[in-house]
Hints:
- It is a single chain.
- By secondary structure, the protein is an alpha/beta fold.
- It has 2 domains: 250 residues, Aspartate Aminotransferase, domain 2 (3-Layer(aba) Sandwich), CATH 3.40.640; 111 residues, Aspartate Aminotransferase, domain 1, CATH 3.90.1150.
- The chain has 12 helices and 15 strands.
- The strands form 4 sheets. A 7-stranded mixed beta sheet has the order 2-8-7-6-5-3-4, sandwiched between helices.
- The two termini are 37 Å apart.
- The model has no long low-confidence stretch (mean pLDDT 97).
- Pyridoxal-5'-phosphate binds next to helix 3.
Amino acid sequence: MTLRRHFPLLNRPGPRIAYLDSGATAQTPDIVLDAVRKFETHSRANVKRGVHRLAEAATEAYAKAREQVAAYLSVSADEIVFTSGCTGAINLAAHSFGTLLKPGDEIAVSELEHHSNIVPWHMLATRSGVKVNFLPIDGEGRVVVQTLSPRTKLVALAHVSNVTGAVLDVAAIVAEAKRVGARVLLDGAQRTPHGPVDIPALGVDFYAFSGHKTFAPHGVGVLWAKAELLDAMPPFLGGGEMIASVTTQGFTPAKAPAKFEAGTPPISGAIGLGAACAWLATLDWAAIAAHELRLTGRLLDGLRAVDGVTVIGPQGLQCRAPVVSFDLADAHPHDICQIMDRHGVALRGGHHCAQPLHAKFDLAGTTRASLALYCEDADIDLFFAGLAEAKRVLT
Ligand code: PLP
């Protein structure tokens, strides 16, 4: 059982593409393309501003998308802020929540974070005198939950690592954060493509993710935050549609989520993301998770059998997402990816925007295979055929 048939790019004529780069951008199913096309051809207009029928239809479609995304996360639609992506969402939190912090307050991230969840906090530290602490990772590339400093005000961590595939022990982090009165932000960029997220059950305060990794268009993402936080946080960007009123003396912001959506939002992207979430919510995730993990197991077992390969990340399947990064006898990841491309295998090579993680493992980069619900055994077969050639040529 796979869902490959729903993805036109993967079914185009010609040799098979073994698309193992879903962690960078996932492919888009017909149902999302249809929703975007329907909007663009039936109700394209700006949202909120107009009273003509197209503007009303666009506003309705945009509001529906917010509901669909909220349902995927089991939260209220008023708490969903559409952004430009996961990076945009974390920057919004850093700027806006950051203004509520004082010099000497501390933020905890980890050594495995994507740069999107490090640099905005470094920038905040430069602006405001807060301190950024790094939780260590263990030899399998998992965050080690440590005693937090009592000055910690926020813990910002990846729900799933984009390099090691490790799934965070959210319960342990939330318990420790609660003990010191800190908020928790999860970067869900690598988690939302693998099924609905029950945010209330996680007990976190912020959740960020990107549309394009969740089978939707580029240029859209989401920041979810508890209503009380969105109320307390000042706006980040100023402009149209984020105000209740403006005078020559100043302005009064609108209520959330409008307060955080200055200017024309990514309307068709949000509609695509809503359609993606609605579709994903109908799928059998027990079966998909088992399928993705079985393929991940094939990758791990096969890689273990190749001389010179080191997998950076958990060696087993427990608390693991289908993301597998490896080193092949110090061969350059770009060379590996190029050879694999000749076999129709799309991989990613480099530091994956996680330089502190790679520094920890004393590597400049790794080669990464990241799977999604449309991957099949034939993709893994192609991967190992390509890898055999890469090994022969490069080592
Ligand atoms: N966080 C993680 C864990 C990621 O994997 C990525 C992208 O690879 C991002 C954040 C940034 O996402 P975007 O570039 O879509 O904003």
